């Protein structure tokens, strides 16, 4: 089993080891895995081109490390507890042994279809166990999977199919999310009419509804796997062979097809899972992320299954049939670790505490968040009410590109501080660099968050666009990975993410992070959520424009609320951070993974709503029209 850090002293010790001699540190972690052939070099790298190779010369298959390596100890143990969208439908479960057979059967079927190592497969499926099976079946035979969130439009899907050069698409007839039905097969048909290269579409019947099937191209899942053996020898992979492509959320622009490796990703996902969540054998772990996002890849599928964990996979949404659903699931499966997103916490918080009444949350040991900075209000609510002040809250900072968590408390080990991601994990060397490329050393500094040395889970390239990879992450500052986020290291050496670098607002020469201002605004008792962007300002250079979700405005009306928001920010941060404009809105534009798309709001605040850029990953386009209508500057 992977080493688990369990004291703060132990953390500092491991951390020091990992920076003094990263090669020995990572070689030691890699020893826990089954390699068909051992690596020759732990790491070879340079960040100029860039070229990053971990465990080069090593041969492995990640699924052998999930299955064969562990079956004799926990083959009969549950791997997946699947909770359907509708609480009245029957749940399903898979043991490791059962999952292994299902994966092999699908793997053999893909092989029979002519899919082999290096081919790309697009997966556009709802959150059913077959989705996990699909990923692992690809990995079993060395096919590169690329999961597209099953809520994306036909155009977004077609773009990804084309970019990934996929020959085969795995999908379902329909998907259920809350009271919404998504006609996945229809979307696939539409996408395929806009792109080329796909020869086979496999349709899992989730709903058994009529769908149009193109003869010669489309086949139902059951038929596709029929008569396929459930015994399949894993394909041998080089450490550096790609495991998957995953497109980023598109919060800042055109999504990037991030490529992850086989060997390094395996080591990093498993190591970070075990440590951050302090997973103990037998624990039940629940991650609310969709597998369409990196969090689902690393912390619902690979990290947990490599550790032989019991996972809860949920098909639906957190607020359906009501805002108590998460708590029901936690009680039903006696969940020990719960990993979710600030956007979900904020939405549940805004619906009131009554949904928590009478829910048995005593099994919870750890709560984790990812995706955005978590504001203090949301942090305290989840800590006090959900965790009953007994569970550490781990605010995990990472990205699609980093493959796994980078800066985060280790649950129960690192003392937490609300809205701080705290300290880097072993092996991760954050550096803070100012806009002129000067490293900011010591504490109480802020600037651009960069990472000095490679880590095994980092992305290797952008699919078919290595130059964009270089330019985005390695060209701004020499010899480091540039994350694109702003950060502060406080007087204790703790890291606090300030928001995207592109979103930093410069008021009269003062640089202000969006996260901090939003944090102050969200403290107002009537405010659910907010998004802050810069706008043109004749005197200050940039002014502050706040979009605020505030369903009730109580006494004093809108103007009264706006005034008290300003007073609150003034008190919390200072007059410099006081918004110049506050627009009350009913909702914020978000990506389908729940992140606020500030770049769109920035355009609106700049009075330039005519060119909003790529909006294909947006959840709800109507929100934008409403915001444009109510915009406070001339549009
Ligand atoms: P794109 O790169 O296409 O714009 P994206 O950055 O939203 O999309 P992801 O890789 O899903 O795509 O998100 C990573 C980003 O999410 C980080 O760069 C950071 O801005 C934000 N983030 C994730 N976790 C945290 C956290 N714990 N605290 C603060 N910010 C976080
Ligand atoms: Mg990003």
Automatic annotation (TrEMBL):
Residue ranges of the Acetyl-coenzyme A synthetase N-terminal domain?
Answer: 11-65
Quote one Gene Ontology molecular function term.
acetate-CoA ligase activity
* Class of the enzyme per the UniProt entry, highest EC level: ligase
Q: What is its EC number?
A: 6.2.1.1
The record, for Gene3D superfamilies, names: 3.30.300.30, N-terminal domain of ligase-like (3.40.50.12780)
Domain named AMP-dependent synthetase/ligase: which ranges? 67-462
What residue stretches are annotated with the AMP-binding enzyme C-terminal domain? 516-595
Query: Matching Pfam families, A to Z?
Result: ACAS_N, AMP-binding, AMP-binding_C
Keywords recorded for this protein, A-Z: Acetylation, ATP-binding, Ligase, Nucleotide-binding
Query: What family classification does the UniProt entry report for this protein?
Result: Belongs to the ATP-dependent AMP-binding enzyme family.
Matching entries from PANTHER family are given as:
ACETYL-COENZYME A SYNTHETASE (PTHR24095), ACETYL-COENZYME A SYNTHETASE 1 (PTHR24095:SF14)
What name does UniProt use for this protein?
A: Acetate--CoA ligase
């Amino acid at each position: 089993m992977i080493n688990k850090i369990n004291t703060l002293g132990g953390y500092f010790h491991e951390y020091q080891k990992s920076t003094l001699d990263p090669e020995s540190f990572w070689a030691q972690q890699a020893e826990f895995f089954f390699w068909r052939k051992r690596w020759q070099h732990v790491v070879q790298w340079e960040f100029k081109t860039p070229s990053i190779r971990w465990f080069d010369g090593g041969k492995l298959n990640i699924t052998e490390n999930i299955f064969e390596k562990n079956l004799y100890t926990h083959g009969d143990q549950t791997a997946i507890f699947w909770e359907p969208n509708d609480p009245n439908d029957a749940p399903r479960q898979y043991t490791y042994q059962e999952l292994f057979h299902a994966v092999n059967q699908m793997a053999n079927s893909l092989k029979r279809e002519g899919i082999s190592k290096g081919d790309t497969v697009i997966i556009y499926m709802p959150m059913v166990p077959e989705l996990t099976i699909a990923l692992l079946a690809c990995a079993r035979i060395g096919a590169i999977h690329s999961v597209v969130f099953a809520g994306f439009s036909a155009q977004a899907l077609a773009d990804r199919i084309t970019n990934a050069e996929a020959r085969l698409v795995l999908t379902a007839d329909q998907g259920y999310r809350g009271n919404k039905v998504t006609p996945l097969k229809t979307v696939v048909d539409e996408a395929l009419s806009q792109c080329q290269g796909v020869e086979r579409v496999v349709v899992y019947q989730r709903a058994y509804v009529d769908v149009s099937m193109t003869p010669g191209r489309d086949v139902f899942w059951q038929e596709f796997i029929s008569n396929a053996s459930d015994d399949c020898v894993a394909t041998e992979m080089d450490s550096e062979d790609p495991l998957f492509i995953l497109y980023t959320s598109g919060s800042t622009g055109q999504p990037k097809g991030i490529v992850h490796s086989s060997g390094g990703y395996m080591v990093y996902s498993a190591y970070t899972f075990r440590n951050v969540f302090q997973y103990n054998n037998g624990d039940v772990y629940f991650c609310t992320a969709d597998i369409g996002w990196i969090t689902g890849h690393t912390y619902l599928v690979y990290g947990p299954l490599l550790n032989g964990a019991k996972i809860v996979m949920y098909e639906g949404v957190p607020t359906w049939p009501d805002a108590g659903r998460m708590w029901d699931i936690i009680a039903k499966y006696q969940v020990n670790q719960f990993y979710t997103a600030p956007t979900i916490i904020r939405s549940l918080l805004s619906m009131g505490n009554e949904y928590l009444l009478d829910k048995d949350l005593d099994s919870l040991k750890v709560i984790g968040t990812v995706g955005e900075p978590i504001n203090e209000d949301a942090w305290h609510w989840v800590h006090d009410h959900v965790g009953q002040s007994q569970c550490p809250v781990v605010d995990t900072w990472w990205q699609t590109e980093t493959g796994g968590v980078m800066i985060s408390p280790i649950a129960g080990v690192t003392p937490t501080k609300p809205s701080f991601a705290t300290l880097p994990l072993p092996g991760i060397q954050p550096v803070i660099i100012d806009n002129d490329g000067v490293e900011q050393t010591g504490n109480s500094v802020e600037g651009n968050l960069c990472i000095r040395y490679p880590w095994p889970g980092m992305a290797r390239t952008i699919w078919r666009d290595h130059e964009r990879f270089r330019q985005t992450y390695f060209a701004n500052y020499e010899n480091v990975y540039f994350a694109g986020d702003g950060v502060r290291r406080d007087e204790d050496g703790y890291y606090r993410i300030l928001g995207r670098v592109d979103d930093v607002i410069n008021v009269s020469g003062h640089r202000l992070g969006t996260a901090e201002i939003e944090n102050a605004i969200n403290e107002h008792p009537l405010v659910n959520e907010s998004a802050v962007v810069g706008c043109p300002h004749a005197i200050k250079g940039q002014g502050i424009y706040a979009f605020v979700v505030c369903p009730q405005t109580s006494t004093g009306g809108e103007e009264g609320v706006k005034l008290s928001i300003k007073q609150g920010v003034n008190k919390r941060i200072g007059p410099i951070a006081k918004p110049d404009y506050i627009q009350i809105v009913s909702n914020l534009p978000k990506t389908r993974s729940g992140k606020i798309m500030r770049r769109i709001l920035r355009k609106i605040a700049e009075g330039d709503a005519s060119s909003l850029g790529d909006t294909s990953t947006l959840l709800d386009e109507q929100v934008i029209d409403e915001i444009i209508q109510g915009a406070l500057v001339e549009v």
